Amino acid sequence: MLPLELVLAIVVPVVGLALAGYNAASVLSIKPGKKDLTDINMLIAEGGKTFLMREYKTILPTGVILTILIWAAYYLTFHIHSGLMAGLAALSFALGAIGSAVAGYMGMYVTTRSAAKTAWMAKNGMGPALSTSFKAGTVMGLSLASIALLVVSILYWAYQSILPTPLWAEALAPVAFGASLISLFIRVAGGIYTKAADWGADIVGKVEAGIPEDDPRNPGVIADNVGDNVGDCAGMASDVYESFVVVLAGALLLAAVFGLATRLINLSIVIATLTLLSTLVGIQVVRGEVRGKNLAAAAMGKLNTALYTTIVVAAILVGIYAFLSFPTMEAVAIFVSDLLGMITAIVVLFATEYFTHYTFPPVRNIARQATLSASNVIVAGYSYGLLSAIPTVLMVVGALGISYILGSMFIAPGIEGGIFGTAIASVGLLSLAGVVISLDSYGPVSDNANGLVEMTGMEDVREVTDALDAIGNTFKATTKGYAIASAGLAALILFIGFIYEVADRIYKGASLIQILTQASSQLTIIDPRIIIGALVGVALVYFFSSTTLASVGRAAGELVEEIRRQFREKKILELWPQERPDYNRAIDIVTTHALKNFLIPGISAVIIPIIVGVALGWIGLVGLIFGVILAGFPRALLMANAGGAWDNAKKYIEIEGIVINGQRFGKKSEPHKNAVVGDVVGDPFKDTTGPSLNPLIKVVNTVSIVFAPAIAAVSLMNPAASPLIMHIISVIVSLL
Amino acid sequence: MLPLELVLAIVVPVVGLALAGYNAASVLSIKPGKKDLTDINMLIAEGGKTFLMREYKTILPTGVILTILIWAAYYLTFHIHSGLMAGLAALSFALGAIGSAVAGYMGMYVTTRSAAKTAWMAKNGMGPALSTSFKAGTVMGLSLASIALLVVSILYWAYQSILPTPLWAEALAPVAFGASLISLFIRVAGGIYTKAADWGADIVGKVEAGIPEDDPRNPGVIADNVGDNVGDCAGMASDVYESFVVVLAGALLLAAVFGLATRLINLSIVIATLTLLSTLVGIQVVRGEVRGKNLAAAAMGKLNTALYTTIVVAAILVGIYAFLSFPTMEAVAIFVSDLLGMITAIVVLFATEYFTHYTFPPVRNIARQATLSASNVIVAGYSYGLLSAIPTVLMVVGALGISYILGSMFIAPGIEGGIFGTAIASVGLLSLAGVVISLDSYGPVSDNANGLVEMTGMEDVREVTDALDAIGNTFKATTKGYAIASAGLAALILFIGFIYEVADRIYKGASLIQILTQASSQLTIIDPRIIIGALVGVALVYFFSSTTLASVGRAAGELVEEIRRQFREKKILELWPQERPDYNRAIDIVTTHALKNFLIPGISAVIIPIIVGVALGWIGLVGLIFGVILAGFPRALLMANAGGAWDNAKKYIEIEGIVINGQRFGKKSEPHKNAVVGDVVGDPFKDTTGPSLNPLIKVVNTVSIVFAPAIAAVSLMNPAASPLIMHIISVIVSLL
Questions:
Q1: Buried/exposed code over B603-630 (b: 16+ C-beta within 10 A; e: otherwise)
Q2: Strands (DSSP E) along A568-721, which ranges?
Q3: Do A605 and A544 form a contact (C-beta atoms < 8 A)?
Q4: B408 pLDDT above the threshold of 70
Q5: Residues of A in Cβ contact (< 8 Å) with B383
Q6: At B524, phi and psi to the nearest 5?
Q7: Is the pLDDT of residue A539 over 90?
Q8: What distances in angstroms separate CA B597 from CA B64, B199, B540, B560, one per listed residue?
Q9: pLDDT higher than 70, residue B406
Q10: Cis peptide before B166 (omega within 30 of 0)
Q11: CB count in 10 Å sphere of residue B733
Q12: In the predicted model, what is the mean pLDDT of chain A?
């Protein structure tokens, strides 16, 4: 018999997927009455599809090998149910990865095809254009939230009915690794793709040939538009999907390892279900006409209302559920922790907007520095970027601290209750993924719609699509803050989960109290393995950041060569429109080099934890993960926000201009050129390296959770390692 | 009766100071036969003196208040010998600060006055010029190493003869806080000063008025030259002096708290003494004629030989001492740990040179990116900066790991022996301070000499001073790496020392084993106070970095206004040399604003640990310090090395040029302009924020060591806090 909670946890996401399908069908059924609009749009859609399919194909062998390795690691380290555990763990991993891939593909399919529809609907005014692009965005948002909840709920229901606690949770854990592997791939390779295409197209197009940004004569222009979808749409979705899966699986794992009551184990699933239900309500706000003096402000208002409606409804539903199901003070602790998670979302979204939008002082100050020199722009933007990380870090710290205290006072005594409280706050934050990603995915749709309007000369709707694009840029920037905060919380939950899971398996047979005492006395911060591991973790973040940054330049260089070659050999600029660029070759080159450049940072993210684990034991691994989180989480904020601020400082000069001693400096002025230097530096900061740090801080955790017991067994630090290594070899030999 | 070790530890530094005095006298006795040379030099010397004296005057009230606070904190938390402990602790603090101030003043006095002497001696060739500027540098190097050793040795000898172990070590600990307070002040305020003067003078001089860098018509030119000495000379010296004092005091404290044998307690003093003796030998290498085809390479060779001679002699002396005084395997452990520390110095110096000098690929690659755009220069430099942190971090980690293993195997069993092993490695690294700072301080002397040659039109010696300046720049850059690695090791030693010292006082009366068990089981990395503290620590590093970076722009802006005003009102450019700039007003403005902008980052470095301690207890404070070290140490390397690389990418284009498709791009070309953008961004990176992180990571430790027991008593986390707070209030009332 399925309890009501689990029935809902399956029904609601199915409804969510149905609504996503309905919205997709209604957007895709729009037939623009302008052929070139659809034609160019299809080039982008096909380019996006090609990139995703090549990514998936490239990752397939790695995925298969890892599935086998996970099977083997579980088979060798579990001594009871070893066959079943190994099979289920491999299944979890595969489903986590496939779910992420499917959500990304579905969302991309619709968003890439919706730009032409939005451009066309803009002829009917702001209202229809807004609801079209937002509907397209909801396909991504609803798909990812529904699939994440569905995968975790089904696995949870199935595993706990055939395995004892906490074994089912341990079999479930690899679902997070599957999701994080895909996310790492899409974020890094996609991040390199999007900015290499952007840089490459701009260097030859805007700088050398002097043609405008979205000019169809530029062979790199389609690759550039594909990149927007790959980065802001598929990349963001896979990242937040991963955090959502991680937080749900982590909350289940912790509740199971702590031996909490079933109702508490189910709690994270229930909160996610109720918030998804609220999302289905909240997103209905964005429809009908947009009226008012300032159309952009009115549209922005509608979108914000969708978010706030979702939060209010979710708070009411979760509150009712908590007070009906738990004693009063426990219900208060649950309700406040969930609310803290959602408030974190609001604070982070606002802090990001404050530091990256030109209605606030930071971006204006950076723009004013542009009257001095490009160097001043860089230093000012970097300085604000550093500052911008602080409110988000402190908000996360505050939410963790308060939910910890509430949890340990009212949910369960001591550390377990406290940690579970922080897990509820994290679930609260991540449950908003559906609505936040709907708002985010609306961004690339309106960005591409605006590009199509420029390419096809639809000057009459320019005002509408410009406004839509500007709003989209704001949400694209603020969602980055949300994704980073989510990744930070997810990583911390995983970190704690990792420690308990491994401790549970290393000190097997011991009681929870014994395990906690053992683990915590071993994990003292004075242990040199912790200190060394943490420093190596910071070094890993530096290495990863350095290689991803450098990759953009290298891949862009290849595209530059190709565009120059096409201009030279095909004389496109002279013979246009008789001679047309070979867009696909440009896409192909960027794809190839993005995938090639993924290798070193991607592999290091998976291999270094294993090497450190073998060299320093699982205690060194704990240090490594701690170092990666401490260095990676604020660095992601720094890079994303500095990039966003530089971008908007340039836009501020273009749109409003700066007045110094009565003289106005606008587009093409010297200060504008200085601001462009910052904008271009910010591109790989905010769209490649910054976002790639999110999956990095999660993947070091997930790879450790899955392989740590096996690593601990063969670790050089384990005095019992040699006989165990012999045992493992003999098992492998007997299997062959 | 003074044992031989301590007699030597007082005699050798006295000899060092005597040699410093002799070298100072011999350089200052040179009488340049060119009046304007001496006149301009005296302007710089006076400016430097004025800045230092105003710094010291500004810090005096803070110093007095802190002396009283330390006295009170010790008086209230020590229950035996409380009056004596309080008095000695206050004395230690004052002596630590005064020693740093005196060493900085003595060194600055000589180096600022030596530029004219060096320029004049350059008429006699490379040999005399090199030995003059290096002799001036040794005054700084020998003063700081000798004073550091002398202060610690005398206090150690005096305190341990009147107090039992480990009380004397606890009374000694504030010496490190005194040193770190002065260092924080000089690094931050001096760092802002040097780059604000540089930026301000360049923006109006080079960019707006189009006059050369060291043109005497620029009112900011003397401030700029003063800045070189303030930053590279006084700043670096106070920083390394602090690390040296910290490591010596930390090693004494750890040995005392661990209850090691007297011979082991003395060991760090002995190693420092023998290495200072070796330094007196090593620096004799730099004398006589410089011969060879390439004069610069020959001069560089001599300077490097001074370093290597010191290391070889020190290794021999320490080896002999160790094998004569300890059982064989213990001697091996001591010898290898000391050697590892010195090898760390070599590796770090080389790694820094590799990433910041244009004879190696990184800087050349950055320069090549300048052919694309300024943005490419920024991204490439930043990417290499990130990468450059890794070898130093890994070398420090390796040295720590190996010396830990050796120590725990052969010096004392378990954690104590291991930690003491790492302390020996740290002493090995820091003992080289004398020779390394001699090499570093030679840099600003030759830089200023070259500037004076330009200002006074001594074209005939330009070749010699150019070569000297180039070598000086290399040492200035590489010494930054040494200072950062030293700060990192010093901070880690302090971190461990802090934990044991506080644990010793909190669990008073317990045996060492009990304290260790108590402390380590409390300091588990899963404790939310550790995690929250660490995240706040990272946020503190970000805040500190952001405010110091932003300060440079603000202070430079003030200087820009002043230079523009002088140009406008005094018409210097038109009426020169009848109308002369008011250099002192420019110096005064930069000084005022550097000191003003010091306030926020400076105070936050001291106050935040206290706030976190009160809010989260001493466990939260442990987390905070860990976070600050993890974030600050690699960030210092990133910022210093990225800045150095950008600087030299520009110089590479100026000196060698880049050839693309047969076309050569040199000074004033488009790529050169792009490289200048990077160079200017790098200025506050490498000379303000990067170096300021060194005292930050040490000062959070030293302030915690001194105040932690008092903080723990009044902490909100301490259930016994309320009665204790009442007790403290009643003691204060009874004292009044």
A1: ebbbebbbebbbbbbbbbbbbbbbbbbb
A2: 658-660, 663-665
A3: yes
A4: yes
A5: 545-547, 549-550, 553
A6: -70, 145
A7: yes
A8: 21, 16, 17, 17
A9: yes
A10: yes
A11: 8
A12: 89
Query: Searching chain A, which residue's CA lies closest to the CA of residue B519?
Result: A524
pTM: 0.94
pLDDT > 70 in chain A, percent: 95
User: Rounded distance, CA B327 to CA A385, Å?
Assistant: 55
CA distances from B709 to A154, A300, B75, B81, B206 (A): 53, 53, 11, 16, 54
Q: How far is CA A645 from CA A124, A188, A270, A307, A487, in A?
A: 33, 22, 38, 24, 21
DSSP H or E run through B665: strand B663-665
- pLDDT given for residue A277 in this prediction: 97
Q: What is the mean pLDDT of residues B285-293?
A: 80
| CA distance to partner chain B, nearest, from residue A675 (Å) | 10
Measured between alpha carbons, how far is A263 from A273 in angstroms, rounded to an integer? Answer: 14
| Closest residue in chain A to residue B560, using alpha carbons only | A372
Q: Are B445 and B286 in contact (CB under 8 A)?
A: no
Distance CA B61, CA B513 (A): 42
Interface of A with B in 376-415 (CB under 8 A): 376, 378-380, 382-384, 386-387, 389-390, 393-394, 396-397, 400-401, 404, 415
A50 touches chain B (CB under 8 A): no
Write out residues 532-561 of A within 8 Å (CB-CB) of B.
Answer: 532, 534-536, 538-539, 542-543, 545-547, 549-550, 552-553
H/E stretch holding B663 reads strand B663-665
Q: What is the 3-state secondary structure (H, E, C) of B225-268?
A: HHHHHHHHHHHHHHHHHHHHHHHHHHHHHHHHHCCCCHHHHHHH
pLDDT tens per residue, range B10-29: 999 999 999 999 999 999 99
A503 and chain B in contact, CB less than 8 A: no
- A interface mutation test: which of B405, B484, B535 has the most A CBs within 10 A? B535
pLDDT (average), residues B171-194: 92
Angstrom distance (rounded) from CA B158 to CA B178: 18
Burial class of residue A726 in the structure, from the number of CB atoms within 10 Å of its CB (0-12 exposed, 13-18 middle, 19+ buried): exposed
Query: For A53-104, how does the pLDDT look when each residue is reduced to its tens digit (9 = 90+)?
Result: 888 898 899 899 999 999 998 888 877 888 899 999 999 999 999 998 988 8
Q: Are A431 and A277 in contact (CB under 8 A)?
A: no
- Per-residue tokens: A116: 């032409």
Is A524 at the interface with chain B, CB within 8 A?
yes
Q: Whole-angstrom Cα distance, residue A159 to residue A714?
A: 28
C-alpha distances (whole Å) from A143 to each of A722, B298, B609 are 48, 69, 46
Helix ranges (DSSP H) in B78-125 = 82-121
Look up residue A589 and give its DSSP letter.
H
Q: Is ipTM strictly over 0.85? A: yes
